[in-house]
Amino acid sequence: MRNEYLPKQAVIEKIVDETADVKTFTLRVKDKSGDLLKYKPGQFMMLSLPGYGEAPFTFASSPAKSSRFQISVKKIGSLTGAMHNLKVKDTVGARGPYGNTFPLDKMKKRDLLFVAGGIGMAPLRPVIQQVFKNRKSYGRVEIVYGARTPKDMIYTDEVKSWRDEADTDIHLTVDVPDESWGGACGVVCVLFPKIKINPQTSIAVLCGPPLMIKFAIFDMLKLRFKEENIYASLERYMKCGIGKCGHCYVKGKYVCTDGPNFSYAEMKKLGIAS
Ligand SMILES: Cc1cc2nc3c(=O)[nH]c(=O)nc-3n(C[C@H](O)[C@H](O)[C@H](O)COP(=O)(O)OP(=O)(O)OC[C@H]3O[C@@H](n4cnc5c(N)ncnc54)[C@H](O)[C@@H]3O)c2cc1C
Ligand code: FES
Questions:
Q1: What is the pLDDT of residue 214?
Q2: 248 lines ligand 2 (CB under 6 A)
Q3: What pLDDT is attached to residue 236?
Q4: CA 110, CA 100: separation in Å to the nearest integer?
Q5: Among 80, 135, 188, 263, which one is least packed by beta carbons within 10 Å?
Q6: What is the CA(105)–ligand 2 centre distance, in A?
Q7: What's the rounded Cα separation, in Å, for the pair 46 and 55?
Q8: In this model, does residue 274 exceed pLDDT 70?
Q9: Is the pLDDT at 4 greater than 90, yes or no?
Q10: Which domains does the chain have, with CATH numbers?
Q11: Which residue has the least CA distance to atom 3 on ligand 2?
Q12: How far is the CA of 235 from the centre of ligand 2 (A)?
């Protein structure tokens, strides 16, 4: 009988220090059979490390035909701390993919607004990569990215390269600037007046700290984005990732299987809207 909790072995091929507390790991799955590599943007996997347990991490790279994928890990506790001590050629366990995806079909032909805070850029990166891979299928793209300081921004070279994409604008802001900073200061919402899309027909996708999501959605609604066109990726405590343990249960839904990506209209029904 198939054991749903059995992880695949994945070897660390590359580690990039994004910031003082975020590393991006390129993992190669040893055995390509099964569903792990068939993930879609917005989905997550459960990563395990003997002696430290298991935790959910979003796929941070666009699905590819190779046996590799990336995750970006912020060091906040025991498992993530142990991950940060790993080296190239070390092995971790990985099972998935789990959760729902962002509505890439619904996004077709529409103008898009992506709003990320800090490591919240990780779940948005595969969606943004998919949009740019199929650039003609989508309308104008506006990306708003905020971090605490310039040194807390991740994927900095790639984010800069997105400026070269057609009909695309990138807006950056930090809470605490340094002498090198030439961008805006303050929360992501300070950049909304620069956005050149029609809110009533556009789709917005957000990920970041809960307070950022709360204030950004509040301002988007004032700009007249539609509730059903605002999507956010929610983080909840998770244990199994497959709708069995009940850790992530909210009003008839399991965030791990029905989410973690919800429209604001759905969040309101679940009573988890700001
Ligand atoms: C669907 C999903 C996708 C995620 N994707 C990523 C990702 O791509 N990159 C990333 O770095 N992290 C991601 N996370 C968060 C990640 O799972 C936690 O950081 C991780 O479980 C922490 O494990 P730890 O053992 O290091 O921390 P612990 O030692 O267990 O906890 C350290 C502290 O962090 C708090 N904490 C732990 N987990 C969570 C949580 N889920 N929500 C709020 N507070 C928490 C604890 O209460 C404690 O205060 C995701 C979470 C979910 C639910
Ligand atoms: S994490 Fe177990 S039911 Fe969602």
A1: 94
A2: yes
A3: 80
A4: 20
A5: 135
A6: 27
A7: 5
A8: no
A9: no
A10: 8-97 (2.40.30.10), 104-270 (3.40.50.80)
A11: 243
A12: 12
- Closest ligand to the CA of 5: 2
Q: How far is CA 173 from the centre of its chain?
A: 18
Atom of ligand 2 nearest to the CA of 257: 4
Render pLDDT for 142-173 as a digit per residue (tens, 0 to 9).
999 999 999 999 999 999 999 999 999 999 99
CA gap 205, 145 in Å, rounded? 12
For ligand 2, whether the C-beta of 238 sits within 6 Å is yes
Rg (C-alpha) for the chain, rounded Å, is 18
Instruction: Flag whether the pTM goes above 0.85.
Output: yes
Q: What is the Cα–Cα distance from 80 to 208, expressed in whole angstroms?
A: 18
Task: State yes or no: pLDDT of 64 exceeds 80.
Answer: yes
Please give the Cα distance from 230 to 264 (Å, whole number): 6
User: How many angstroms does the Cα of residue 257 sit away from the middle of ligand 2?
Assistant: 8
Q: Which amino acid, one-letter code, is at 263?
A: S
